[in-house]
Amino acid sequence: MLPRRVFSVLMVLILFSLHSSCTMITKMIAEEPKVSLQNVEISSISWNAIKTILVAEVENPNKFDLGLKNLVFDVSVDGVDVGDGSYGEAFSVPAGEKGTIKIPFNIDSKSALKIAQKFLSGGQNLTARVKGKMVFTTKIGDYEIDFDETKPLVNKKM
Q: Structural domain tally of the chain?
């Protein structure tokens, strides 16, 4: 009979390998969805924050629906780190279709001031970089996608 400690370690290893196997099986069966950042829109500017909307398109090449489980991301504007965020609201992309997701993101006043300084010193065309990970649920397991894209910052109010 195995000592309790050895048994516990073996169970943890078995569970870990099963979880890893499910992720590998999902990636072998499913085609990778395509995630592309369409826009980074400024929705409002105040003394406290710049409110933006990150607009991304998700293309699902599979024969089954994808449901967003989790999204985490970091944002920088012209090299200035302006924060990170997460999004967990319901979003799904039907089989073989594209879907657009709009993610609200606030840039705090301290970061906004740094961005304004760059803008006033000749950076008329500021760019936003969004880097992160999306996790989708499928009938056969979770599917993780890393993304890293840069787009011009667009002011929809002007």
A: 2
In a shared domain, residues 17 and 46:
no
Asked whether the beta carbons of 77 and 115 are under 8 A apart, the reply is yes
**How do the pLDDT tens digits run along the chain, 158 residues long?**
556 665 555 455 455 554 444 455 555 567 888 999 998 888 888 878 888 899 999 999 998 899 999 999 999 988 889 999 999 898 999 999 999 999 999 988 888 888 877 777 765 678 889 999 999 988 778 889 999 999 987 766 54
One-letter identity of residue 40: V
DSSP-assigned beta bridge partners for residue 142? 137
Range of 7's domain?
1-30
H/E segment holding residue 125: none
For residues 24 and 100, state if they share a domain: no
